[in-house]
Amino acid sequence: MPKYSLIESKLRRYLYLGHEYCIYVPPSIRTSFWKENHHDDVTGVRIIGKIVKKNKTEEINSIVPIILKIKKEDKLLDDRLLIFALAVCARFNLEPCVKMVADAYAAVSTICTDGLKLLMFVKFIKIADNILFDQGFITIMSNGHGRGFAKSMTNWYLKRDPLLTTEHIVRNKCYDGWSHKDVMKLIHLHSTEPCRIMYIVYTLSGIEKVEKLFGSKMKDVCIEDIDETFENKQLKFIYNFLKQVENIKKMDEHALRYEIELNRWGKEPEVIPQKMLKSSTILTSLVMHLPLEKLLENTFFFAKNRLFNNSTPDVGLWEYILRFNNSILLKTSQIHPIEPFIQYAKYARTCMNILKLQNNIMKKEEEKSVIESIDNKLKVIVKLQKTPDKEEVNDVNQNQPSNFYMTKPVPKLVDQLMTFLSEDLVKKTCEVLDPLGLRIMITYDSRICMKASMCACSRLIKVHEAITLIILSLIYPEKLDNKPTVYGLNSDINSSKEIEIDYNQPLTFSSLESILFKEPGCIGSDSVDSDKKDIPQVYPHMSFKWAKENNKEFDVFVFLGNNKMNLRLFKRSMKGYQTHFKNPVKIILLCLNGKHYDQINLGRRNTLFIIGFDKNVGKLINSFIKDDF
C-alpha cells in the first residue's frame, strides 16, 4: 500500500475526483450540485493556494513534481484537472514560488501532449488568474501572460517533432475561444527552420500562402530519392500532409473513404467535414478505424445518423459489433462494463423520451403557442393544396389552415444493437477485468422501489440497474473462492440477509438483476410500495453487525443505495468492526439518486463517497481500492 505525503494525498484526491475530500460528483452536474466555493476550479486554486500560504519552500516546490508523477502513472480518467492544476502553479507571482512557476512552465511540453491540451492550458491560465486574485492568494493581477508563458508556448511549438506538431495543430484547432492562431500571434512565434515556418504560415495565413512560399520548391523534392536531404524530405512530408487535409474538403465520399483507410484519419476524425459525417459509407469507415473507447462513446452519434438503420443496415451494424471481438484491444481500451450499458440506455431510451414529448405535444395540439414551440427536429410541415378559384369556397374551406403539423416518426430501434450493448458487450468487458484479490462485502438496498428511483447525472439509468452493474463488475473477475459477499437490505431489519448467487450458472446482467431484485410475490421480496410518499429508510450499518456476528473479516465494504440510507450509526459501527478485527477497512458509499442529508460528514480518511452515477464510477471504485488516491 503506497504511502503518500499529506500534500500528495490532497492533490491526488483533487485530480481524480475534483474535490478536496474523497467525494465524487460527476463533472456534468458539479456546477449545479455544489455552491461556487466547491466548483472544481475554485477547489483546485484553494488546495494549491493553502500550500503556498504556509510559505514552506520545500512543500511549494513539491507540487509540480507530484503533478508530473501522477501524469507519468497515466491512470487519470482525463487530464483536464491536471492541466488546470499546472496552470494554477504557473500563475503565482510571489517570491517563494519562483521555482514552482518555472517548473510549471517547463512541464507544459510533458503534460500537454497534444494541441487540444495546450489550448486548454492557455484557457486555464486566465481562469486561474481571476480565481487566485478573487480568493486573495495573489494581490496583483498580471497584465499579460508573461515571459515564462511565452517561452513555454515557443518551446511547445518549436522543440517537438515538426510533423507531429503539424498534426496536433491541424487536428485540434481550437478550444473554448482559443486557437493556435491566437497563441502564435500572442507570442509572436517565428522560426528560421523551413519545416516550422511552413506550419506557422499555414496556421496564420492558410494553405494559399504555403503554396506561394513553398509550392514551386516542393515540386522538385522526391521523398524516395536517397540523395535528397533529410530537411527537404521532412518539409515534403509536412507539405503533403497539409495538402491532404485541404483536399479532404473537396473529396466525394468514395475518395474520402479511401483516404480514411489509407491514412487512418478515422483515429482523428476532427479533420473530416461535418457534411460527410452523414454518409453511411464514411460512418462505416470511421467505425472500422476509431479507437474502441471513442467508437463506443459515439454510438448514439452513429445511430442518430442512421448508420444502423439505413438501406444496408447490416454493414454498419456488424462492422460496429465485430470491432469489439478482439479481447486484447478490448482490455487495452479499459472500457468498463458500466460504459456499454450507459450507451444502451442513451440509444434505447432517448427514443422513448421523444415519444413522450410527442404525446404531450399532441395532447395540446389545439394550443397555437404549443405548436409554434415544437422543435423543428420533431415536426413536419404539410402544406395543403389551394382550392381552384373557379370552385365555390364555402365557409368551412375558408376557415381551413393553409398547412398543418405532423410529428416525425420515432427513430426505429435495432434489437441486435440493444442486445449487444446491454448484455453481450457488458459481459465481454467483465471478462477482461482484473481481479482485485481482496475480501469485499457489498451491501445494497434490495427493495423493489429502487426500480422507480432514477440516478443523478445518468438520468436514463435506474438505481437498481446501476447497483446491478457495480455488483456485476466487482464479483465477475474474482476467483470462485474469493467472490465478494453480497448482502441485501430491506425496510424490515430482520429480513435483511446475505444473497445467494449460484456461480455454476451463467452470470449476466439480466440474471444478476433478477437475483438482486425479486419481483413482488417472490419469496423474500420486499413489499414496499414505490408510490408511497414516505419510503422507509434502510440501515447500512447493519452489515457491520452481521459481518461481526458471523466472524467475517473484510478489507473493503461497498454500500449501494439512494438517499433513503440512514447513516447516523454508520461511523460508530465501522469503528467497532475495525477494533474487533484489528484491521483497517476501506469504505465505498454510493448515493445514486443525488444529495444525501449526511454528505457533509462523508468522504474523509478511508471513505469514498460517490453521488450520482456516470461512466467513471466503476473505474474510480477500482482506483480507490488500489490506493491510486
TrEMBL record:
<feature type="domain" description="RNA-binding protein RO60 vWA">
    <location>
        <begin position="544"/>
        <end position="625"/>
    </location>
</feature>
<dbReference type="Pfam" id="PF25045">
    <property type="entry name" value="vWA_Ro60"/>
</dbReference>
<dbReference type="GO" id="GO:0003723">
    <property type="term" value="F:RNA binding"/>
</dbReference>
<dbReference type="InterPro" id="IPR037214">
    <property type="entry name" value="TROVE_dom_sf"/>
</dbReference>
<dbReference type="InterPro" id="IPR040322">
    <property type="entry name" value="TROVE2"/>
</dbReference>
<dbReference type="InterPro" id="IPR056800">
    <property type="entry name" value="vWA_Ro60"/>
</dbReference>
<dbReference type="InterPro" id="IPR036465">
    <property type="entry name" value="vWFA_dom_sf"/>
</dbReference>
<dbReference type="GO" id="GO:1990904">
    <property type="term" value="C:ribonucleoprotein complex"/>
</dbReference>
<protein>
    <recommendedName>
        <fullName>RNA-binding protein RO60 vWA domain-containing protein</fullName>
    </recommendedName>
</protein>
